[in-house]
Amino acid sequence: METMNAQHIEVNEEGYMKDPAQWTEEWAHEVAREYNINLTDKHLALLKWLREKHNEGVALNIRKVGKSGLVDIKEFYQLFPGGPLKISSRIAGIPKPVSCV
Amino acid sequence: MNETLDTPVTAKAGAAVKKDNDTVKKVIIICSKGTLEDVYAALIMANGALADGRDAKLFFTFFGLDAITKSKADHLHTATVGNPSFMPGMPTMVGGLPGFEAFASYMMQKQMDKMDIPHVTEFIEMIEAGGGEIYACKLAADMFKLKKEDFLPEVKDIITVADMYALADGEGSHFIFI
What we know:
A: mainly alpha, globular, B: alpha/beta
């Protein structure tokens, strides 16, 4: 079993958290640093929204995030450069997105 | 990185942050067809590249220009004649009946709506928002007598073949032709 940081959170081979319930803000900050992202309140609000939607069973895609009312698609790319949904999902402790759109 | 928590991240939208060992850093997608499924293939691949942290440029030429022409972009059709994969077993003549192609295209678009796939113009907006660039082919635009104002606002420029090749400058660029 792969683990990350002192909290011994289990992650899969791509670094995605196995149990989203283990998520903490400290975890988010630590993973975000790997991407050279310093989490702001805006990032955190979006991470919480992603976690809520995941808990509701919504299959997330970039378009839905763009309609979240929190950010538009352009801002989303700016907040998480280099693959916004993929990276934000990992930081939010939810599974890697599977949508092609 | 010396940024503090108060400093917003200001990286360029869509800037590729791929690891060095990624061989596909940029895709240049040339779309020469105006049929619904071909245009969607181009859009999905471009958007998918951006969403995965890769750079994407789209170059529309010949009938592909329909996809970026204001009056046509959201009214593309799928071919019901000369398309053996479309309803196998159906006589070709049926596919040619008046209104059949429009009906089939409507059904296909409806199915895509159900799958939460955006219409062409919204898709192009998404690609631009993600840092993708959209171009029209100069020769084809001249041939169809289309000007910059006939195209969607996201179309960055009307460019030559030489300009299109220049988009591929840099390592890890790949061409996809549709």
